[in-house]
Amino acid sequence: xxxxxxxxxxxxxxxxxxxxxxxxxxxxxxxxxxxxxxxxxxxxxxxxxxxxxxxxxxxxxxxxxxxxxxxxxxxxxxxxxxxxxxxxxxxxxxxxxxxxxxxxxxxxxxxxxxxxxxxxxxxxxxxxxxxxxxxxxxxxxxxxxxxxxxxxxxxxxxxxxxxxxxxxxxxxxxxxxxxxxxxxxxxxxxxxxxxxxxxxxxxxxxxxxxxxxxxxxxxxxxxxxxxxxxxxxxxxxxxxxxxxxxxxxxxxxxxxxxxxxxxxxxxxxxxxxxxxxxxxxxxxxxxxxxxxxxxxxxxxxxxxxxxxxxxxxxxxxxxxxxxxxxxxxxxxxxxxxxxxxxxxxxxxxxxxxxxxxxxxxxxxxxxxxxxxxxxxxxxxxxxxxxxxxxxxxxxxxxxxxxxxxxxxxxxxxxxxxxxxxxxxxxxxxxxxxxxxxxxxxxxxx
Length: 445
Known about the structure:
By secondary structure, the chain is an alpha/beta fold. It has one domain: Rossmann fold (3-Layer(aba) Sandwich), CATH 3.40.50.150. It has eight helices and 19 strands. It has helices at residues 195-208, 220-227, 243-262, 283-297, 312-319, 331-334, 363-380, 402-409; strands spanning 2-6, 11-16, 22-34, 47-54, 78-79, 87-88, 95-101, 113-119, 139-140, 142-146, 155-161, 178-184, 232-236, 272-278, 324-328, 350-354, 388-393, 413-422, 430-438. The strands form four sheets. Strands 15-14-13-16-17-19-18 form a seven-stranded mixed β-sheet. Strands 1, 2, 3, 7 and 9 form a five-stranded mixed β-sheet that branches. The longest helix is centred in the middle third of the chain and has 20 residues, at 243-262. Residues 62-75, 164-174 and 300-308 have low confidence and may be disordered. Pfam families: Methyltransf_16.
């Protein structure tokens, strides 16, 4: 998959038009690369791009259904007229584009608006989880919030809309519909979303769907864990910007609220908690994305009639939020069983990780950290099964296969696996592999 990226913050100026009126002039500098930024998009035919603008801040994450019970996106974003349509061609490295925002006559009038840059051909855009089932390569759009009164943004947004087949998509108003995370501007691979995290988020959203899974690859054992209705404690290691951990929380919250609407919850949902961990340099972005998740999901949609507060039951449904937290975890400490207070606070049922196997030098520390987490649970209570491990990876090098030998030597075995095809525009198709590992309490050294 390829990603539209901003190489620098948008440049916003007030420009005098021929009618002697001020309009907002915006300049963007873009590139389109793979998740690692190691190659540029090289399409067989030119890729036209479009820019959209929303006058509303994306602080609420709720379905808007029109009179035909279909998602109503027309009020969210509208197309920006361009003097010349941005076009990415084979051999491109950087694309500069500029345009006017005719609806605004001053920079102050922008308030908090959001720009979106995406392929003009909707079928080439990875806006939603169902898009990942396409048999052709995709490009992920980018969003950036314009805040004229604040310092220039150094982050952009990735937004992946949950789209499930059947009636689940059209059940009314209290379910979150997307996961949204910040990533840093520029070409650096650090603190960006990567392919396996995006695809695994789509897979877990499919597993948590009340409707059928459709054609999305799935892990039956993992689906049982997520939909059993039991209490669930999940820790993610190497979380990066947090798209998988926050995506899982959003998918589970969506399922809970759908159950509430259908009358499926009789005694309230079982407790669920998610802890994301990574190196200290990932902390700021991960914590910011947790705060964004909280803002988007802690309150329900506005009531349909002004002054209507809703019932106490409505407010209780809206107030429930699956907690997501963060703590630093260096695998060099983890392999020695040295964990922070949040990691040590509870027995974990599931350990998740995605896009963590590319650095083969760190594989021994990774496997030993997973094993130490397992032992920390089974040692504390012989009656408690150790956590399962959910691993999502995009194979990049033959050397990464060393992970499986290390896992086997440490007593881990694969209990479930799935493969998600990942077509690449202008290149060879790739795959995302997902594995569920288990380990008996008495195995290993």
